[in-house]
């Protein structure tokens, strides 16, 4: 039960050390590129850029990707590699999907095998997974250079080239070879036809003959490595990493889980190497690792080691709720006894789990995929026990438990600046970070970036929970339905992409005669949340790093707070815990905690 997560964490730690050295070597430009690659690199090199030019280049590049993505998906009915004759996605679903993959979120309001052709998978999904995954990486590199006091923070296009060509492509190729050897499909064909063992299990045709099974295939082994390495998470199939062709064996499950951990782990150490403060980055690494281990242990303890409460017996109870019409001012609301279902749950909550990988694999994957903002799933998030659902939610709410490539480290820097500022105020000393004084401008930019995330979760979630847009879409009324709504916006704002699939948010193909009734407002709302939550928390920290990096380094005195000690680690951890609790504890109480405590008066 505990062996799999322990092996994954140890393997990720071991791999992150050499990877961080390799990343530093590349981003510092100390390599010598082959002649052909050097020619293209020189072609995209427009010269050193200041923080404004770098940010503008990043935004313009993403605008171009948005236009490209919209065109590719719109051409699906007319493009090749579409023998099944798949038509258009609904326009708002195209809008949502393009933004989703542009922002490295990969929230999917469709099922890949029924909505996208191989043309769309190859020319839209695959390039976006490489390019969107590189944006956060590049932004972190720019911030590090600005923290060092540099006037210029590099060149965005050169950084993108380095990350894609020298990091993602070779590592994805290596993982792709492993996955193909394990049986993952890699073909331009769209379908394979198989005769089922039980004749007629797929129904009968017009002539009364048993139908064969049609299995959708495609370039799966090309998509899955970068899906995981880039913490993209968007699956080739609707069942994502629980699908036997997308995750054929326990070996592929181990390597896919490890793949999404590698770069977020390594980038924290790269931060220290590039700044020349490796001990400082080790402290940050330790804080992140402690949070991840705690969240993994929590979800395994509350899900893998506990039965599903929906299948257990419940005694008759009665609740008293305030009522103005009752004589005593309180109304007795009885809750009848519920008999247990005849299901043996000695292995914990197995509902919605893919048991090919072991009993704890789904729970551990659920915590890790949200901690690193990947969003891939190999078990049903909607089936987690109520308190277990807190673990992935907390991972998305904090958004810095390693987080995505570069962006997770950037988000943690926001908490770090706030923590340093508060510590400085408590001891009556001007706060400092990296030897430079943190002033009002840095704090304003840090708070802007920090508060965007909860605003984009709590605001839309409250609106949808109070209107038919949410209540009509949710499959479960009360606390669990509220959790589904909050989870969807948490996933969108954290650029995660996973979902509690009890929500009816899928329109599908434009010709669909019976789409989910509230699919359109969900497409638009989550699309806008993904857009703002991606770029505001990148642009503001770049500006903050420039402002801080321009200041003179203050001499070290007896009052200087060291940033490479255990004390600093506890300060950082405490800041994250306190700020995170202040922002999200109320909504946690209304959702998972209320569902755990009982149906009335907590769950409705």
UniProtKB/TrEMBL annotation:
It comes from Roseiarcus fermentans. The gene is kdpA. This is Potassium-transporting ATPase potassium-binding subunit. InterPro entries: KdpA (IPR004623). It is a multi-pass membrane protein. Keywords: Cell membrane, Ion transport, Membrane, Potassium, Potassium transport, Transmembrane, Transmembrane helix, Transport. The lineage of its organism: Bacteria, Pseudomonadati, Pseudomonadota, Alphaproteobacteria, Hyphomicrobiales. It is found in: Cell membrane. Belongs to the KdpA family. It holds the Pfam family KdpA.
